[in-house]
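Retro notes, item 3 of 5
We never archived the inputs for the flavin-adenine dinucleotide complex last cycle. Fixing that now. Sequence and ligand:
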Amino acid sequence: MTDVVVVGGGIGGLAAAVCCARRGLAVRVLEQARAYGEVGAGIQLAPNATRVLHRLGLLDRLRDVGVRPRRLVLSDAVTGAELTHLPLDDLTARYGGPYVVLHRSDLLDALLDAARAAGVALETDARVESVVDTGAGVSARTADGREFAGGVLLAADGLHSRVRPLLCADEPVASGYVAYRGAVPLDAVAHRSDLADVVVFVGPGRHFVQYPLRAGELYNQVAVFRSPAFARGEPDWGGPDELDAAFAGSCDHVLGAVAAVRRDLRWPMADREPVDTWVGGRVALLGDAAHPMLQYLAQGACQAIEDADAVAAALAEEPPDAALRAYQARRAPRAAFVQTTARRWGELWHLDGPAAAARDAALRARAPDDHTWVAPLYG
Ligand SMILES: Cc1cc2nc3c(=O)[nH]c(=O)nc-3n(C[C@H](O)[C@H](O)[C@H](O)COP(=O)(O)OP(=O)(O)OC[C@H]3O[C@@H](n4cnc5c(N)ncnc54)[C@H](O)[C@@H]3O)c2cc1C
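Structure as it came back at the time:
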């Protein structure tokens, strides 16, 4: 008998599967895609996630295929000047885990290998269409008519979760911002920042992120901007023409780097209002299905990994219904804090005029080792 059915085999679902299996639970993951995989872009993992990955024994592998940056830097997209930075080399001492940036597929592969080694059953082509909570267990039915029963169901099926409507009636909130991103060979980007840094260039209605991946072989770039077409209510928004227009007026470094960003893949950015109804009976939400957030704090996957650790610990200690309630009580307030802080952080990055000047003055006055902003996230 399966103890835990996980819907969705992204970072959140696989992390949950590994954490639960390591605690002796029988786990089955149902993934709708033909194969497990991630997009060709980078991901930043902060100490709140690397602590968990360290306990799972995965951190050494991730450090080998990733990069440990020296600093997080905020710079001005218009002038190119540095506004402030956070040294990253003492994070293990402060928070129990390092800051690591890596290719998303390297993280997913490490989780997949760990899941296989822990005996997790990994289904593909398993698109869950309905879920029934029988009181004593759960049953998930896939599009091709298969039924998978288990003791509890963890829905890690992302922003547009199929399971979430069972627990709360809401819709994603479009931010009107769109991201273009991708990892390319290092040499393909002439306008690189210092390879020891993760750099965010902030400007009016836009920002641009750069950092190296895969021990410095690849370079990750993310260009994010507010779409005027979205604000006008047009159905087709965020195209490459708007990308170029949004970054016009940036410094030469950012202009040159944006020119090297892939134009064929874009992500309209959306989140949801925080809720505290992640759990009903034997069903619980996890990761973006529970708390989708704007990516400005680089915390969405980190929070999913925290969820995975928390739900597995609860399931190992208490009967299923009580365990899921304990998981929700422990995680929902913290995830809500990160969701709302991410929105505010984006507003701060994208300021214009006198408000932007006041922000820049405050950032310049900040001591690099001031951890006021990050301690609540990383601690
Ligand atoms: C531009 C950008 C940059 C980001 N940068 C960072 C960062 O640096 N650090 C960070 O921590 N986070 C970052 N995030 C957020 C992070 O990517 C997400 O929070 C994280 O990937 C969520 O993982 P998940 O497993 O919960 O959901 P998803 O990644 O959405 O995975 C859901 C899985 O469920 C499957 N699925 C969906 N429906 C069904 C169904 N009905 N049946 C079966 N399977 C189904 C999907 O195929 C998918 O595999 C970023 C996000 C964006 C957009």
